[in-house]
């Protein structure tokens, strides 16, 4: 995993690898808190996360970021790196990602990242909601897809500001759980998928976790002290109903990721937050799968990208 001598996370404790197993799925073991992270960390879930990497990249027309970070960033931090696919793509000297000068560090509560990585990419096991301890600041701090994962977003923004170099950039790419229909004649309240989005949001809120960070990112970034803040919103369809070719492709991958691992992303949240049984969750997921195949529903959500710069004359 590679040590980072500039971080207090200098070793991978054996307890981190003592995963929890529930209903045939594997979950993290970084902290003794069932509500810390609701989703699995096994291979099936990792495939879903990598598929979301593709969806997000498609949404950004092949780009991995929108912030104008320049050609030679020296230090990059990827918050909640997940499978590490974004960090590895940024580290590769490809046509799209030419940052060979950058030292790229990704952190996550689960050690699920690959061991064979570009020479300028490293990973550490860490909880981004704890106090950060780094001896050097970063040129660029990146975060994405932390929906249903973070309790204190303002604290995360403040720590990002603290550990960004003057003139450096932060970028937050995220969603909300609000799915809506673009078909004005469709009764969304009768759809199990719409009910699922409401139940998931209600469940994670019981643990103090924010399910809808996307629309709030811009204000949080500005409140933290960043300037030159820019916000962008991209539609994320569910299914192949859009006429636009790129949106149709995004929708196809989106519904694939949902159908393939629906129980995995639903089970713990509804069992712990709503006190459902495993059988009740499975029956509900079957209803959702059927509902998702209804093209007339035309469900869509939003993908938010917000970036900002730390003032050049900032003291800290």
TrEMBL record:
Record has Oxidoreductase as a keyword: no
Transmembrane spans: none
Record keyword Lipid metabolism present: no
An example molecular function term from Gene Ontology annotations: methyltransferase activity
This protein's UniProt keywords: Methyltransferase, Transferase
SUPFAM superfamilies linked to this entry: S-adenosyl-L-methionine-dependent methyltransferases
Any single GO BP term: methylation
Name assigned to this protein: S-adenosyl-L-methionine-dependent methyltransferase
């Amino acid at each position: 995993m590679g040590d980072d001598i500039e971080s207090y996370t200098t070793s991978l404790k054996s307890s981190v690898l003592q995963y929890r197993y529930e209903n045939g799925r594997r979950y993290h073991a970084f902290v003794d808190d069932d509500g810390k992270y609701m989703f699995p960390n096994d291979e099936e879930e990792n495939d879903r996360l990598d598929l979301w990497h593709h969806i997000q990249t498609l949404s950004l027309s092949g780009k991995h970021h929108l912030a104008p970070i320049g050609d030679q960033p020296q230090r990059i931090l990827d918050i909640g790196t997940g499978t590490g696919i974004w960090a590895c793509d940024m580290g590769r000297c490809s046509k799209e990602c030419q940052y060979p000068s950058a030292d790229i560090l990704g952190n996550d509560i689960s050690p699920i990242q690959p061991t064979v990585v570009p020479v300028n990419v490293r990973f550490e096991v860490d909880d981004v909601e704890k106090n950060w301890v780094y001896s050097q600041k970063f040129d660029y701090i990146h975060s994405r897809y932390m929906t249903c994962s973070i309790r204190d977003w303002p604290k995360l923004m403040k720590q990002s500001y603290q550990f960004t170099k003057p003139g450096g950039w932060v970028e937050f790419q995220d969603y909300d759980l609000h799915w809506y229909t673009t078909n004005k004649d469709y009764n969304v309240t009768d759809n199990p998928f719409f009910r699922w989005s409401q139940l998931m949001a209600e469940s994670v809120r019981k643990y103090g976790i924010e399910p809808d960070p996307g629309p709030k990112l811009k204000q949080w970034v500005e409140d933290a002290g960043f300037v030159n803040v820019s916000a962008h919103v991209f539609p994320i369809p569910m299914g192949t109903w859009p006429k636009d070719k790129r949106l149709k492709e995004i929708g196809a991958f989106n519904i694939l990721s949902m159908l393939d691992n629906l129980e995995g992303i639903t089970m713990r949240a509804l069992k712990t937050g709503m006190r459902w049984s495993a059988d009740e969750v499975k029956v509900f997921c079957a209803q959702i799968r059927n509902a998702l195949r209804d093209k007339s529903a035309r469900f869509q959500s939003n993908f938010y990208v917000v970036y900002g710069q730390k003032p050049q004359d900032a003291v800290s």
